[in-house]
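Question thread 4412

I'm putting together a teaching handout and wanted feedback from people who do this every day. The idea is simple: show students a protein as raw sequence, then show them the structure tokens that encode its fold, then repeat with a second protein so they can compare. Below is the first pair exactly as I plan to print it.
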Amino acid sequence: MLARPGRLVTGALFASVAGYIALNALAFQTARHPAPLFAEPTRIVATPAPRDAGVPPPHAAAPTPSLAFDVGPAPLPPARAPIAAPPAPPPAPAFARDDDPIGALIRGSDTTTTASLGAPAPDARVAAVQEALVVLGHGPMTVDGLFGPATRAALEDFERDEGLPVTGALDGATLRVLAMRSGVTID
């Protein structure tokens, strides 16, 4: 036994835990467990339906027990209070400045909207830059005269390839090198 003290300690620990569980179950519990493992089965006892004293049974056989249960109507869910309408929003504050176009748009007092302004007009210079970039093979893009993200990306790509400062803007040095390399006249 002393040759293996680990087994001795483990066995003693196991015996003490098992002893405590048995002592707790047999001595320390004062009431029945709410869900015992070995409970008595619930028995349903059928009671015969009441009979009139003067009427003999219809058959000579044993009476048939009635197992009908009347549970009544199903309960209704509790009534809910009606949902109240949300409160009205507070009135818009009065602005002191009437020359603020953004504030006028927010207030809705100005009839000019961004939809009524229309699309920007094409620029001939931007169209020439786009044509020069397409000729040099910098990105598939439509030559529409509008300086958008595709045009800016193609221009930055051209500036990187030529060793120019990458600005993505239509500045003088970039335009001169672009016109010279592509052969397209840029005004």
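The second pair follows. I'd like the answer to focus on this one:
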Amino acid sequence: MRTTGKFAAAILSAIMMANGLSLPMAYAAPSSSYVNVDEKYDPFAEEMPAKEADPSKLTFKERIALQKKEEQAAAQKVTIANVMPGHIYIPKKTMLNVELIEPANSKTHKKNQQVEFKTTENLIINGVVVIPKGTVGMGYVYEVQKAGGFGRKGVLRIAGKEIKTLNNVSVPLRKGLEGKGKTDGGAVAVAAAVSLVGGLFMKGSNINYPASTDF
């Protein structure tokens, strides 16, 4: 009994030592970063212009409110046009030319996974370099789908999140990189007519963006 007890204790000790050695190795494995985003927000959606109200159908009170709103908008444009010396105003919808730092694939990447890119040229406003060439910005996987059976093509949409100016001001971004894989519609139609199982072997292609893909 004593021998059995010692043997069991030795096994238990060995298991604990093995676990103790394996845990740090598990935590040391690299893990991808993910970005917290509003799931209802679509960075690729086109902004619809606001409908102008018909003054003839407005009440007197509503017309006064509309007039004040127009005056405030006009005052804001004047303020933006006369930016204080030493300050820079970055207009909405300013385009940035960037490229991926690492490759991205619809097969391996996950939704909301962080994706980094860098600018390929200086962003210059009023003769001032605001965002230098080579500045690293952050994006994320907005939508992803692996290629699959029945010709289902891969989908990978990478949205911009933010980038910082030369003086460390964070600038929010929209739009990004989007693409879809290819599918053989004819082959899928034939497979579906002959055999339902056969369609599982008719796969679409995944999206693969190599490093340095520009957008």
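Top answer:
Good format. For the second protein you could add a caption like this: Confidence is low (pLDDT under 50) at residues 7-31, 185-192. The CA atoms of residues 94 and 123 lie 9 Å apart.
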